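Our consortium's second objective concerns turning raw sequence data into structural hypotheses that experimental partners can test. To show how far this objective has progressed, the report includes one record in full. It was chosen at random from the queue rather than selected for favorable results. The single chain below, 478 residues long, was entered without modification.
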Amino acid sequence: MESEKHIKLSELNSKISDALTDRFKGQTFWVIADITNHSYKADKKIHYFELVEKATTSNSIVAKIIGKAWGTGSMHLSDFEKNTGQSFTNNINVLVLVSVDYHPLFGLSLNVLDIDTNFTLGILEQQRNATLKRLVEENSFITKEGEQYITTNNQIKLSAVIQKVAVLSGSNSAGHEDFRHTLENNDFGYVFEIDDYPTIVQGDNNAKLFLSKLIEVYNTGIQYDAVVITRGGGAQSDFLIFDNYNIGRAVAKFPIPVITGIGHQKNVSITDLMAHTQTKTPTKAAEFIIAHNRSFEQSILWLQKNIVIKSQQLFLLNYQSLSSMKSTISNSARELISAHKDSLTFINQNTINSSKSILYQEHRQLVNISHQIAGKPRIILYNRISDIENTISNLKTFTNQYLRNQKNYLGHYSSSIKMMSPENILKKGYAIVRVNDTITSNADIIKVGDTMDVILCDTIFKTTVKEKTIYNERDTNL
């Protein structure tokens, strides 16, 4: 091959650069693409990334090109992040204004000059609205009335006092610390039981982890007064997990009231709409619980105050009635005493005279009785002595007879005892069995192989049990 037909690579790249410059010089294009492989050099304020286009029916990439943003383009990306709350990062769909650039060393790329904020917000809002529509259409426990969503969860009545709380939050998150600090250091001295269930609370790809932690709360069987979901502030994309269909459905159906304290400032998430109560931040969630308990306490204090007032009114009313009754009774008593004064004087005199007459008659009867008592003891004593002598004579007679009878009984019992003594029993051919120095007739405690003593009237056999057979008490010829 002739040498004059060869060119350097730099010369070829220069030709390509000239051709592209001539073709695209001064032209810009609005391009829809996804962001991947993003990085940011903070010292130079330059974004590096790839713009990709995916197939409509799958995630396969059909087009890809390197992109960068610096200078004015980088400033527009910063404005985009401020206005949307969405970080310019991987996996977001954007509409950007680009120019074509070719560098002999770094190759073909696109310079991002501007970004359409409304386009990205519109995509997110479309996805969110589609998820909300699906939740209503596919689940009977979610309905929409006007702009409000009615769910099983937000129809549960909160406990009069919220005391036992399960908290789903990121591990060591500042939002969770704010929630716990606010709850535990309330101005009213309320005491709470807080159980932490740490999980990941950002990124739609972590929805399954979050859902499994919510299910774990249910499976504990603990009667929580409320479940609180907390998360601090962050980029809009960080909150996409709370727009997830499965999480929204689980919260809507959850049998324990769910209180959200998610630190987004712009949009209300789907989880917020499905939950019992939505607050803006973890601190606000804690303040809501404290305010709820404070409301209950104030209602009790109001009832107490009402009871005191009603009691005082009732006491005053009845005090006046009692005073009136007291005055009436006093006046009536005085009138009755005055009216019956003469009758009482007559009765008093009659009582005195009758008492004197009764005392005189009773005195005479007592004197007569005392004379009779003084003469009767000698007669009574003589009769009692005669009775005692007769009793002594009878006792002697009966005692002798009783002793003879008892002696006969003792003789009979003695003969019976002798007949039943072990010596006599053994002489009749019976034997005594002794196992482990204990006499027994219970065959259940004697096992084959045991050693036992068989005692006859004049001999003791030491024997070992070789066989044990059930005896029906009918085979022995006695």
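The partners drew two points from this record. The mean pLDDT is 86. The CA atoms of residues 385 and 391 lie 10 Å apart. Both points have been shared with the crystallography group to help prioritize constructs.
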